[in-house]
What we know:
single chain, alpha/beta, five-stranded mixed sheet
Amino acid sequence: MPVVMAIDESNNAAAMVVVNYEDLPRLTKDFRRIRHFREVKRNRNRYLKEESKPKLEKAVRKYYLELRYYPKIGHYFWEDVEYYAQFGLEIIADDKLWRAVVGRFEDVQISIVKEGDIASAIEELKQKLWKAQKEKDIITQAEAERELEYYLQRKILITIADNHVNLRRRGLKH
């Protein structure tokens, strides 16, 4: 079963989100309006506990979605990453973990995406899409829309991981 993984780090704690590739479009559609907890202006803990947590619990029941939390990035974390990488198509890694992930999986046939590259790629694709619409280039427009959708899915998945690591790190999971 092919999976897509998102790995995020916060204060030496880490979260890993593993989702079946076939469930990815439906999962990201359900989380389309997710906000990164840092985008929330007031009461971030409340957002994480009352909005993010119930949505995650519902998604775990509905899809093949595994949420893993590691209070410390150690050998258990890397064992799990290596295990899921056997079935992985892609790893979306936090900027702080990206170099370590690339170093561990340079010989493995898996796509590794850096979280920081996603936002710039989305902006480029929006510009490409706007230009294609302006020029009425249907083929380029369709291609840009497909690619943009996939980058948005990546962004949503890494946001889920980011919110999960902060939810657990702040002790709000209980």
